[in-house]
Amino acid sequence: MKLLVCISKTPETTAKISFTEDNTAFSKEGVQFIMNPYDEWFALVRAIELKEKHGGTVTVINVGTPDNDIVIRKALAIGADDAVRVNADPASANFTAHQVAHYAQDKDFDIIFAGKETIDFNGSLVGPMVAELLDLPFFSYASHLEVEGDTKTITCDVEGGIEVLECSAPCVISATKGLAQQRIPNMRGIMMAKRKPLEVVEPVDVSETEKITHLAHPEGKSGVKMVDPENMEELVRLLHEEAKVI
Amino acid sequence: MSLLVFVETANKNYKKTAFEAVYFGSKLSEDCHVLTVGNHDNIPTLGQYGAKHIHVANADEAAQSDNQWLSKVIADKASELDAETVVLAHTAIGRAVAGRVAIRLKAATVTGVAGMPEGKNFQKQLFGGKAIATYTSLASTTVMTLMGNTVKPEASEAGAEITVFTPEALSPAVKVVSVNKVEGTVPLPEAELVVSAGRGMKGPENWSIIEELADALGATTACSRPVADTGWRPHHEHVGQTGIAIRPNLYIAIGISGAIQHLAGVNNSKVIVVINKDPEAPFFKAADYGVLGDLFDVVPRLTEAVRNFKS
Ligand SMILES: Cc1cc2nc3c(=O)[nH]c(=O)nc-3n(C[C@H](O)[C@H](O)[C@H](O)COP(=O)(O)OP(=O)(O)OC[C@H]3O[C@@H](n4cnc5c(N)ncnc54)[C@H](O)[C@@H]3O)c2cc1C
Ligand SMILES: Nc1ncnc2c1ncn2[C@@H]1O[C@H](COP(=O)(O)O)[C@@H](O)[C@H]1O
Q1: Which of A128, A238, B78, B163 is in the most buried spot, having the most CB atoms within 10 Å?
Q2: pLDDT per residue over B11-36, tens digit each?
Q3: Residues A196, A48, A183, A117: is their CA dihedral positive or negative?
Q4: What is the structure's pLDDT at A138?
């Protein structure tokens, strides 16, 4: 099987968020970056498991600047065979999707994996956009995936349950919890990763469709009102009369 | 300028998120068109929430699972109407088609819009609520998904003009094997009241007090990640950064410390109640109401008080 995994770099989950001076971008100062958890824990690991079972290759692709190589090397250390970095600071999901689709269009991947969403932009967009650009079926929020011959059986999370779908064509799948178990790279993996190929390609032109023009912090809570643990009637009264939620 | 809303059909009916999307669309444009799949008796209700024209794609409801097909149907209708905005609910289907439709229309896309747009400016939260971003559309069309609970739809007596059309046939690439949904309770992403519990519960055998409280309130249950990871509760209950993000009117957190990754999934709840025995628990800082005490005493007492209030 020929597999492609889209990986992105995001601020670490506890990062304190601040903005650049004009409030139009996240400030990178003092922020630790990681591989987006959905990409690392679920998409990448499931791709590697499929390769281990059925043979083939796992390529990872990232659209990003040279400082992303550390995240890409980690993906190689976990078990991807080779990597591609499209050398650009991605302006939007639309931009990223065009780069991934351009790279993948003539390479006959059986499955292209993305994560459910990036934990910073929460877009859930790159996967379906790549699928549309390549005219492939897309499966969102896959929590289970089995492959037998050409047939992929995919369990997708939907509101309040699951949907099991089958597809025999090449497809794009976005990974969510359940698809695989996180793997920690071992020493041998880390050593091998240094020698694995990391190709750098230049981006194709994409016209901008939207941009962030302002960022702000949400208003915080005005403070907690403590209620006597012996007096739950009071809490019910507050929820009813003051908060008006019950 | 015309606007197109796609609403998901669920068992020949619509969910709250569908009415919200229609209502939102009708507030944004006088010329509010709605697209729905499958012909059935509940279609006219969409008119009561603000649809002016309803376009019924004459196909099986199950076809909605094929987002490749659905995106084409939506994009074709949007082009035909020259729609300036395409509104989808922020559901699994909505998110799966938003990007596809945007590519087809060369449109701007903003997922998770959480307020009324101003002109070409759309607001959404980023980083699980740690920031609020304004996206400005640079394209002639914008495709957006609407967060649940952003508007409160009001029904009127209005009616809509209904047109049935036959869309292109399904591509055979995707086959639906089975659909398995939890019956009875409101799914977590749609719930208005949520009772959630964490590791403070000590073990799965103690969950009956959580279920009783949820039952008394008519709430849906949720849990923290370690609780789902250790199998105390099913995965679909896991909320937070790596679980699902929810936005109910009331979120009651019981025996949950309030780690930042947990808060990322719940801090948009309108009202948060925290029950914890540790005064230093970070969750109190994100709460509206706090109860400092042992959950094994407090929760049954709260259930009792809710029952008395309801009767
Ligand atoms: C990348 C990443 C992603 C993550 N994503 C998520 C996520 O999506 N969702 C999530 O929930 N977590 C997530 N986590 C884990 C998160 O950091 C916390 O570890 C987790 O939320 C803690 O769960 P908890 O509050 O149930 O348990 P604990 O932190 O152990 O808290 C238990 C609480 O119960 C209280 N308590 C104990 N006994 C009682 C009692 N008798 N009465 C009252 N109170 C009591 C304690 O005071 C304590 O505050 C993530 C972590 C990482 C690193
Ligand atoms: N810069 C990027 N390079 C490669 N893949 C990306 C990039 N950004 C996002 N992705 C992929 O797209 C998924 C969804 O991202 P998003 O649409 O931003 O929520 C991520 O989980 C990644 O798999």
Answers
A1: A128
A2: 999 999 999 999 999 999 999 999 99
A3: positive
A4: 97
Residue-level pLDDT at B82: 97
Q: Provide the token pair at B19.
A: 């009415």
Token digits for A100?
């991934």
Total residue length of chain B: 311
Which helix (H) or strand (E) segment holds residue A48: the answer is: helix A45-54
Rg (CA), chain B: 21
In this prediction, residue A222 has a pLDDT band, given cuts at 50, 70 and 90, of: confident
pTM value > 0.90: yes
For residues A93 and A121, the answer to whether their CB atoms sit within 8 Å is yes
From the list B93, B250, B284, which residue is nearest A224 (CB)?
A: B284
Q: Is the CB of residue B188 less than 8 Å from the CB of residue B57?
A: no
Compute, in angstroms, the gap from residue A61 CA to the centroid of ligand 2. 10
A148 in contact with B, Cβ within 8 Å: no
Q: Give, using CA atoms, the residue closest to atom 11 of ligand 1.
A: B224
pLDDT digits 0-9 by tens, A70-104: 999 999 999 999 999 999 999 999 999 999 999 99
User: Rounded to whole angstroms, how far apart are CA atoms B281 and B295?
Assistant: 14
How far apart CA A72 and CA A46 sit, in angstroms, is 17
Mean pLDDT, all residues of chain A: 96
**DSSP-derived secondary structure for A53-97:** HH--EEEEEEEE-GGGHHHHHHHHHHT-SEEEEEES---SHHHHH
Reported as a single tens digit per residue, the pLDDT across A25-45 is: 999 999 999 999 999 999 999
B200 lines ligand 1 (CB under 6 A): yes
CB neighbours of residue B187 within 10 Å? 17
